[in-house]
Structures are given as C-alpha cells and as structure tokens.
Amino acid sequence: MKAWVLAAAMLLGSQAASAFEPAPSVVAVRYAVTEQSPERVEQAVTNPLERTLLKLPRVTGISSATSHGSIVLEIQFEGGAQQQDAEAVSRHIEKLVFGSEVVVTSRTVSLAAQRMD
Q: How many angstroms separate the CA atoms of 99 and 8, rounded?
C-alpha cells in the first residue's frame, strides 16, 4: 500500500512540476560565426536570416540579438510554433549562403519558450 501511495505522489508531483514549465512557443535559431564585429555579423548574417524567415507561412514576428560572433533569433508563429515550423526554418536556413568573410561554426534550430520581446 505504501508503494502505491508513493508512486501516486511522485506522478502527481512530476505533473505539477511540468505544469509550471512554459510550453515551446517559438523556433529558436542560434548561430556561431567566425566574424566577431557585431555590426558585420548583423549585416552579413542576421539581416539575411530575418529577411528569408519572414517569408515563411504563419510567421508573425522575429526577435534577434547579435553579438561578437553569435546570433540568436526567435521566430514567432501564429498559434505558437510546432515541430513542422522548426523543420521549415531548418530547410530555409540551410539554403542561405553568407559572404566569404563569415564562416558558420555551429547552428541549432529548436522549439523553445519565448525569451525575447
């Protein structure tokens, strides 16, 4: 009997904890590049990314942050982002070619809770 009560309490506790975790609502894109000047990174990478991603269906907005060698974008979708939106973002950014002065060293695309406004 004690084991059943303990198992039920653990299950309820884990459900309550997950209720406080924000559901994914955006597609987050992170880039690391060799160029270190934030102005050049914005011009060569961030701006072309934003232009191409705004063309995707259901996109309602994009927030971005550019710094020394890194870019973070959050793409908002009508009704919240879904896995197929993350896949569409991946397909679109794979086609982008940046100037020869910028080498992408890493890129990730994932569903995430919105952090930027």
A: 57
What is the predicted pLDDT for the residue at 102? 86
Question: pTM to 2 decimals?
Answer: 0.78
**Rounded CA separation 22/112 (Å):** 9
The distance of Cα 113 from the centroid of its chain, to the nearest Å, equals 9
What is the Cα 3 distance to its own chain's centre? 41
Q: Please report, in angstroms and rounded to a whole number, the separation of the first and last CA atoms in the chain.
A: 50
Q: How far is CA 60 from CA 45, 52, 94, in A?
A: 20, 13, 21
Identify the three-state secondary structure at position 54.
Answer: coil
In angstroms, the CA 30 to CA 33 distance is: 10
pLDDT at residue 63, rounded to an integer: 96
